[in-house]
Design brief:
Helix content is 44%, strand content 23%. With 563 residues, it is of the alpha/beta class. It folds into 3 domains: 128 residues, 2-Layer Sandwich (Beta-Lactamase); 160 residues, Reverse transcriptase/Diguanylate cyclase domain (Alpha-Beta Plaits, 2-Layer Sandwich), CATH 3.30.70.270; 238 residues, TIM Barrel, CATH 3.20.20.450. Strands 13, 14, 15, 16, 17, 18, 19, 20, 21 and 22 form a 10-stranded mixed sheet that branches. Strands 2-1-5-4-3 form a 5-stranded antiparallel sheet. α12 crosses α13. The longest helix is centred in the N-terminal third of the chain and has 22 residues. The radius of gyration is 40 Å and the shape is elongated.
């Protein structure tokens, strides 16, 4: 044994105390690159007893496993240059998909006061860092997928629609061929979601996405633009072919769907914009497709395919002009109130028991604008609350002139009014100013509004009922109501929608639906009013079903309220 070796053997205990005090795995080698000291943490890392490795070189620790870099060690001992390298050490603790435990070894040289050179090394376990890198890559991949795809349906998401259209535009500019942008909307989805629940609504969106893909397959881009709407890009197509594809999509979506035991059939509408006929940018094409969709829904709420047409642009201009005139009409109190009688048929005798107040508007040009056109504009422009208060005041004033009889007057209430915090105070003012009993006032709320804004409605409706105001469900039979939810609302009267009356008594399917609606109302102990009665045959048929209260042209058309 050389003097140098003897010297190190003599102080080995000091070396062990020193390296054991360090939290980092550390080893020390002599000039022959033999281990002369190793910390406890190093021994644990390489899974070897200290006594079995001191005095040995790398290959003697684990035959075939090269933990140390001999060339780097020699260079460090000779020159004092520091080195760092990474190595993989097989370990049973490492996950199966990882070949070895990743380690980083750093080398340095120390010279003692007597000039003896030793190699000092530290070892860093990179396992946690490697796992963190893997997790980061997974997170980055998930983030990339979330940015690209809709998490619910797996379709492209909203952010990818315009880039995809831009690609189609670039391709079409080279080929000279047109392409189509289809905007697809599920009709009455919100009602389905409210009645069956969000989980069923999500499942419905997934099924419809799959069915759209079945029609277009892999030849096109399909995206979910949000809510219940999808966008389909049909490359290299003409308007006729695009329309045929849209019709197949509507047909496929309309097939029965089983949602947790509930059998559902849902319709859809499609708006189509063509490049370059209807627009030359992604933004313009999407706007035109949306306008086409809205126009199609207006013409046929049950679902249809509708192309963008220049006339839609003219309709937008008309709406803008109507909105301007409507604001002036409300300010100048030019929205008129008409009354239509509600009658009861008993023992062959007809008696007027109430009136429905109806808003009518004649523009300065002399044109009469349909309520179907101007009432939505009142909502959109925020004028409904002001206009509604004036109609309510007139209705209460009319009843004040009829205190000698027991007729009532009903006033339609919009969603905007229901949501207004001052609505209840407004009703109180109108009734108390006119001096009529609360019992002579009725408020009509559509079935869809009552069901969709259920939680908002119920407290307000209870307060109205406590005052003695009778509450009526308008358009009953057109929504997705169920007995459990309707029974929570304090309505006393339901008005059967005219769509269920129109084809009676001849249409058998309509008769079946009507009987169901009547049975449903009776189950809730609600009085019935049948709207839209125009023929004696309709009246007689309803009387046979036990309905004896009517409203319609057969008993009187709307007439201006007496002043």
């Amino acid at each position: 044994m050389s003097p140098t070796d003897a010297q190190f053997v003599g102080v080995r205990t000091d070396w062990l105390h020193l390296v054991d005090a360090l939290p980092t795995p550390v080893f020390v080698k002599n000039r022959e690159q033999k281990l002369i000291a190793a910390s406890a943490s190093f021994c644990k890392l390489v899974d070897c007893a200290r006594e079995s490795i001191l005095g040995f070189q790398d290959f003697e620790i684990r035959p075939g496993d090269y933990l140390f870099d001999s060339n780097a060690e020699v260079r460090t001992l000779e020159t004092g240059e520091q080195f760092a390298y990474e190595v993989g050490l097989p370990s049973d603790e490492v996950a199966s998909e990882q070949a070895a435990k990743p380690l980083k070894i750093r080398l340095g040289r120390w010279v003692d006061p007597d000039g003896n050179k030793v190699l000092v090394g530290s070892v860093e376990d990179l396992t946690e860092l490697a796992e963190a890198n893997v997790s980061l890559k997974v997170a980055q991949r998930q983030s990339q997928l979330a940015f690209t795809f809709d998490t619910l349906t797996g379709l492209l998401n909203r952010s990818q629609i315009k880039p995809c259209i831009d690609e189609c535009i670039a391709t079409s500019e080279q080929s000279g061929l047109s392409f189509a942008v289809l905007l697809i909307s599920l009709n009455r989805f919100k009602a389905v979601n409210n009645v069956l629940g969000n989980q069923a609504g999500d499942r419905l969106l997934q099924v419809c996405a799959q069915r759209i893909h079945q029609v277009v397959r892999a030849r096109t881009d399909v995206a979910r633009s949000g809510g219940d709407e999808y966008v389909v890009l049909l490359s290299e197509t003409d308007p006729l072919s695009a329309g045929r594809t849209a019709e197949r999509i509507i047909e496929m979506i309309g097939m029965p769907i089983d949602l947790d035991g509930s059998r559902l059939e849902i319709s859809s509408s499609v708006g189509i914009a063509m490049y370059p006929r209807d627009g030359r940018s992604s933004n313009e094409l999407l706007i035109k497709a949306d306008q086409a969709l809205a126009e199609g829904k207006r013409k046929k709420p049950s679902g249809c395919v509708n192309y963008f047409e220049p006339s839609i642009g003219r309709d937008v201009e008309r709406k803008l002009a109507l909105s301007r005139d409507l604001a002036q009409a409300v300010d100048n109190d030019q929205i008129q109130t008409y009354l239509q009688p509600i009658v009861r048929h008993e023992s062959g005798q007809i008696r007027v028991i109430g009136y429905e107040s109806l808003a009518r508007w004649q523009r300065g040009s002399g044109e009469w604008v349909s309520p179907l056109e101007f009432v939505p504009l009142l909502e959109e422009s925020g004028l409904m609350i002001e206009a509604g208060e004036k109609i309510l005041n007139r209705a209460c004033g009319f009843i004040a002139t009829r205190l000698s009889d027991d007729v009532y007057v009903s006033v339609n209430v919009s969603g905007q009014q229901i949501a207004d915090e001052g609505f209840l105070d407004m009703v109180d003012r109108a009734v108390q100013t006119s001096g009529i009993p609360y019992q002579r006032l009725a408020l009509e709320v559509t079935e869809t509004l009552a069901m969709n804004d259920h939680s908002t409605c119920i407290e307000l409706l209870n307060q109205l009922t406590e005052r003695g105001i009778r509450l009526m469900i308008d358009d009953f039979g057109t929504g997705y109501s169920n007995l459990a939810r309707l029974s929570e609302l304090p309505f006393s009267v339901v008005k059967i929608d005219r769509s269920l009356i129109r084809d009676l008594p001849g249409k058998r399917s309509g008769s079946a639906i009507l009987r169901t609606v009547i049975s449903m109302a009776r189950e809730l102990e609600l009085r019935l009013v049948a709207e839209g009665i125009e023929e004696p045959a309709q009246r007689d048929y309803l009387i046979e079903l036990g309905v004896n209260t009517f409203q319609g042209y057969l008993f009187g058309k709307p007439k201006p309220m007496p002043t």
